[in-house]
Design goal:
The protein is globular, with a radius of gyration of 26 Å. It has 2 domains: 21-45 and 92-209 and 253-475, no CATH class; 481-574. It is mainly α. Helices cover 65% and strands 4% of the residues. It has helices at 2-20, 23-44, 49-61, 76-86, 93-114, 120-132, 134-137, 146-165, 174-184, 192-201, 203-208, 212-237, 240-252, 269-272, 287-291, 300-325, 335-356, 360-379, 384-409, 422-444, 450-475, 481-495, 509-516, 531-540; strands at residues 504-506, 521-522, 545-548, 560-566, 569-574. Helix 19 (384-409) crosses helix 20.
Length: 575
């Protein structure tokens, strides 16, 4: 009995330590997740098209002989990958390793960001929820740019908050991190709007800051250096025209996506799939549905978490409204606030109209205006503690809203774009859950110990993480067709030692370019009406080898014969 009691005390002390300082546990869990998923990703290969472009760009940045270069793409991930290439480790796995390291940095940063609003164990649970979301877990080591863009945005926001609340010197890190986020994913530049709303809300603190002039001067100098440095970088790369075209496309929300497989004009696509982004069903799930949760069905756990979150957030809003507009404090109903409220309603109506008519810039401006006026209306004269919490709530609302508007208005949609909204999504899930716990305490009239509450948050985090991991483990394929492309490319090297001098084309050219370390142009049968037209195209282009990897069937092509096949990949040679 004494031995059991001692073991129980040890477990109890360990749990208390986790509850009070769970960051180390979070890092270890994240490291374990990344390591496991890294082993899977190395086995199944590159998950989608763009990763091969980043790999080819990394060869270019490393000064190595490589394939086709898409230099206009965001340079950060290829640059980091190229550093390991220069050390002699040239492999697809490098970009997976870099992505995994960035993900660990991101989860750590998100925990520190949540701690500005929640206690340590709530922040721990929120961080586990963040990485457990299907759109996060399946892309955590993918070599894509969506998570890196979010990671550096998280750190920019974190330094903004502690710079305003604790030490103004941290504000110097905000702009460089925002620029790094943009270099990771160009559209991460929209994070400037949540930064702006947070600065507007905390304008009084800025004004009373003794170092304000020094901060402004330092930030302006930073801004000038970063702009000049970025422009020099892009001019040196010869990518300025592509960058300006992209900025114009983003600003006007225009796209030639009608012919894209991801073309989807549905404005509410991401809202309609919110349940799928919490957790997907394990029985019907497939690997394709894990990469694209909208193709699956929500799990029971997803419904439970959604209900708890909605109840908790509703209680939070009700309690806030009651304290603000209750009989004890009727002051908000003065003429000034009524004017603000009326103006807010008008702007909300304008926002709905502009969003419906897909006016990106106007919708973003109106969103920020509505949130700022709503904050002034609701929290003018509130306590510093209420203002501090509300400022973070409004910042995360703007974070979700800004990226939701952008990706909803764009006419092509894929689930991984929701990663840009994932931090805000996880924030409101843990906010709703924490408020639900308070509601339960009030209704039961029992003040539960902090230790028991800690256990509830640990259970929530581990159940969601276990469910997400189990689904992934059960439906992960041993390999993908990109492995077959690699095998085919290796075979060509042996079959024809002079392949570098040959005209090789493929319907997956960036992958073949990477494996053969040469420029391979694209050739797509789907762009031609008949197989005969495509055959004429190959002959007129004097193509020696054509590598087909995406066709449902492999028809006879006049003037060419199949010489080798690897899985779904077929190699045609000119007769």
């Amino acid at each position: 009995m004494d031995q059991d009691k001692k073991q129980g005390n040890v477990i109890s002390r360990s749990l208390k330590q986790v509850c009070h300082n769970p960051l180390i546990v979070l890092i270890l869990i994240t490291l374990g997740i990344v390591s496991y998923f890294l082993s899977i990703q190395m086995r199944i290969g590159v998950p989608y098209w763009d990763v091969f472009n980043y790999l080819n760009n990394a060869l270019y940045f490393a000064g190595m002989e490589g394939g086709s270069v898409s230099i206009f793409l965001p340079p950060l991930l290829p640059l980091l990958t190229s550093l390991l290439f220069r050390m002699g480790y040239v492999s697809i796995n490098v970009i997976f390793i870099v992505s995994g390291f960035i993900s660990i940095v991101g989860v750590t940063g998100f925990y520190l960001l949540l701690k500005q609003r929640f206690n340590p164990i709530q922040s721990f649970a929120g961080s586990i929820i963040f990485i457990s979301l299907p759109v996060m877990l399946s892309w955590v080591v993918s070599g894509g740019i969506d998570i890196p863009g979010v990671v550096f945005s998280i750190w920019a926001i974190y330094f903004l908050i502690i710079g305003l609340k604790k030490d103004s010197r941290f504000l110097y890190f905000v702009l460089p991190l925002a620029v790094i986020a943009i270099m990771a994913r160009y559209t991460s530049g929209l994070i400037i709007l949540p930064i702006l709303i947070y600065l507007l809300i905390n304008l009084d603190e800025l004004k009373t800051n003794e170092n304000l002039k020094k901060i402004i001067l330092g930030v302006l100098i930073e801004f000038g250096v970063l702009i000049v440095g970025s422009m020099y970088f892009f001019v040196k790369l010869g990518a300025t025209a592509s960058i300006f075209n992209l900025i114009f496309a983003v600003a006007t929300a225009t796209s030639t996506g009608a012919g894209d497989v991801a073309y989807n004009p549905n404005l509410l696509y991401y809202l309609q799939n919110l349940l799928n982004y919490i957790s997907v069903g394990p029985i019907q799930g497939t690997y394709q549905q894990i990469l694209n949760p909208s193709m699956g069905i929500p799990s029971i756990l997803s419904y439970v978490i959604a209900i708890i979150t909605i109840v908790g957030l509703s209680f939070y809003i009700y309690r806030g409204a009651k304290s603000r507009f209750g009989r004890v404090n009727p002051s908000p109903l003065n003429r000034s606030n009524l004017l603000k409220f009326t103006l807010t309603l008008v702007l909300v109506a304008g926002f709905v109209i502009s969003f419906y008519f897909k006016s990106l810039i106007i919708s973003e401006i109106l969103l920020i205006s509505v949130l700022y006026l709503l904050y002034l209306f609701l929290f003018n004269g509130a306590s510093d503690d209420s203002k501090g919490k509300a400022s973070l709530d409004f910042m995360f609302i703007s974070w979700f809203g800004v990226f939701f508007i952008f990706h909803s208005i764009l006419p092509f949609k894929v689930d991984r774009y929701f990663i840009t909204m994932a931090p805000a999504f996880a924030y409101f899930i843990i906010l709703g859950f924490s408020q639900f716990m308070e509601l339960v305490d009030i209704k039961s009239r029992i003040t539960k110990s902090s230790f028991r509450k800690c256990g509830v948050y640990l259970i929530l985090a581990l159940v969601l993480l276990s469910s997400a991991t189990a689904i992934y483990v059960g439906h992960t394929p041993k390999k993908t067709f990109t492995i077959d492309i690699g095998n085919s490319s290796d075979w060509i090297k042996e079959y024809d030692p002079h392949y570098h001098d040959k005209n090789i084309r493929s319907d997956y050219p960036n992958a073949v370019s990477w494996y053969l370390k040469m420029d391979v142009l694209g050739a797509y049968p789907r762009l031609f009406n008949t197989t005969g037209e495509f055959a004429d195209y190959l002959k007129n282009s004097n193509v020696d080898y054509y590598i087909d990897s995406t066709s449902q069937s492999h028809p006879d092509i006049e003037g060419y014969r199949i010489i080798k096949s690897w899985g779904v990949v077929v190699i045609y040679q000119k007769v």
